[in-house]
């Protein structure tokens, strides 16, 4: 099954939003990541996309990569540590705006969501090394 959390059942509708990784990955604002959610399932900063990759309507788009903004190590560390609308640097703010994240989420929610997800990725990475 394409959906690791079981949000999409065999009848394909309705989707169980409270099981959908995208619900916990930004689109519904900052959500606490529940204990049942396996951190290995989280592979995107925002969203999940596994159902999108499995959908036959999307075949023509698989492998489509858009070059976009990148964040250097210092910027990533700042995002990880947590920024606010008062402490975010102009450079980071401009990148987030060009990505449409500030317009979509708002400044505070965007920064909080990114810090939260970066921490999940960091913990998962530490677990692999240990």
Task: Considering the chains and any ligands shown, give keywords for the structure.
single chain; 130 residues; mainly alpha; 2 domains; 6 helices; 42% helix
Helix content: 40-55%
Please write the string of helix (H) and strand (E) elements: HHHHHH
**Straight-line distance between termini:** 29 Å
Q: What fraction of the residues are assigned to beta strands by DSSP?
A: under 5%
Question: Number of helical runs?
Answer: 6
User: Count the strands?
Assistant: 0
Mean pLDDT: 81
Q: Please give the radius of gyration in angstroms.
A: 16 Å
Shape: globular
Record the SSE blueprint.
Blueprint: H1 21-24, H2 50-54, H3 73-81, H4 90-98, H5 101-105, H6 107-129
Write a brief caption for the model.
The protein is an all-alpha fold and 130 residues long. The chain is built from six helices and no strands.
Structural account:
With about 130 residues, the chain is mainly α. It has two domains: about 1-65, no CATH class; about 70-130. It has helices at about 20-25, 50-55, 75-80, 90-100, 100-105, 105-130. The longest helix is centred in the last third of the chain and has 23 residues, at about 105-130.
């Amino acid at each position: 099954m394409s959906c690791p959390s079981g949000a999409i059942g065999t009848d394909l509708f309705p989707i169980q939003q409270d099981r959908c990784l995208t619900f916990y990955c930004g689109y519904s604002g900052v959500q606490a990541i529940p204990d049942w959610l396996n951190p290995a399932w989280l592979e995107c900063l925002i969203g999940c996309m596994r159902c999108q990759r499995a959908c036959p309507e999307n075949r023509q788009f698989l492998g489509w990569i858009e070059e976009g903004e990148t964040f250097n190590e210092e910027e990533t560390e700042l995002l990880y540590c947590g920024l606010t609308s008062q402490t975010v640097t102009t450079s980071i703010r401009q990148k987030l705006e060009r990505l449409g994240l500030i317009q979509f989420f708002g400044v505070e929610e965007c920064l909080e969501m990114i810090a939260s997800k970066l921490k999940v990725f960091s913990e998962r990475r530490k677990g692999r090394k240990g």
